[in-house]
Amino acid sequence: MRVGSYGSAATEASEQASNTSTANSTSLSSTLKAQNTNTEDTTTLSSASATVQSLTQTALTADPARAQKVANLTQAVSSGQYKLDADKIAESLASADI
Length: 98
Prior knowledge:
The chain is mainly alpha-helical. The chain has helices spanning about 1-40, 50-60, 65-80, 85-95. It has two domains: about 1-30; about 60-98, no CATH class. It is built from four helices and no strands. The longest helix has about 35 residues, at about 1-40. It is elongated and about 75 Å long. The termini are far apart. The model has no long low-confidence stretch (mean pLDDT about 75).
């Protein structure tokens, strides 16, 4: 008798816990759906966007003087005429904030 009584009480508690869990799950699901339907991606362009575009264009435009300098250095390195100054390199490394 006592085992049957205990068994039914345990079954009732298990059913209540299951019902509560299902209700919480349904509530959470409804909340997430409401959040997803109200979320919208937006983009706002400010007056700074024109400045950024201008700076980007300037950075991407090749400077003829720089292009000539790079070409000269490339040629000097390829021909073996470019010499590194070890003292200048050491000085620069020592004074750099690393």
